[in-house]
Specification:
This protein is an all-alpha fold and 320 residues long. Helix content is 78%, strand content 0%. The chain has one domain. It is globular, with a radius of gyration of 20 Å. 47% of the residues are buried.
Amino acid sequence: MESNKIRQIKTQTVPQNNPVMTLREWGMLIFLSLIWGGSFFFVGVAVKEVQPFTIVLVRVGLAAFILLAVARVKGTKMPKDPATWGAFLIMGALNNLLPFCLIVWGQTHIESGLASILNAVTPIFSVVLAHFFTREERLTSLRAFGVVMGWIGVAVLIGIEFFKGFGTAVAGQAAVLGAGFCYACAAIYGQRFKMIDPLVVAAGMLTGSTLMMLPLALVADQPWMLSPGVGSILALIGLAAVSTSLAYIIYFRILASSGPTNILLVTFMIPVSAVFLGWVFLGERLGADIFLGMGLIFTGLIAIDGRLVHRLQRWRCGRT
């Protein structure tokens, strides 16, 4: 029979309305982290020869084409009402247009591994926004501790460069943090698509992003003047087909069943693959301060999730 102490831990430590993820959902989340971690690598390759806005345009445009083709083959009908397409445009701005541009521009000034670590603060933004804008996920004392630890980690990552002056490196880091805030807003807004096929949502969102991105890239970058090499072209294809088209189908499927904070735990795992790829293929080297900051951010994310802390407390109570 369960002790009163364990019952108390269940009630106070784990948010009652935080959806529990199944083994299948965890598997999808891990796979999503691998292909999104690869996106930082693909951008790191392409940004050496291709302008930032053009990278984003190719990413969303090719991904939209692929998903619309898949929808047509499957016989899936896209919505026609203006209200739904208006929502797709807003979702595209929050989840594609703004964060993609900020991350790609940021990676012109910082390494891909560092960008992925800074992007891992997305759930920290999300848990605060979810507290104020949703009824399902409230800010507990444990999650508040996680938010504080996460921002201490960000301070460690940016602190030294910041005191040297607000240069391009700090601006690049700030841009990636801004992208994380956009992703958190998108996760909250994206809950309205729960009843729509994830393929339809991803295709509609990316189509809207392409329409918004096209004039910006044409005016700012003049992409017809570019002559990228084979490596950059392959990176752009991988970025669009794998790290965008496939990724967003998985993203919306997990979001519909597990909620905004759970889906954003993917950023907890992305830096591992991104740092590894940057180290092996791009020759990137991250200092001890970077790994210290990453450790603090990850500690905050563990606290925000709460499940590991809950299991440790149950284990300790079971031994007493």
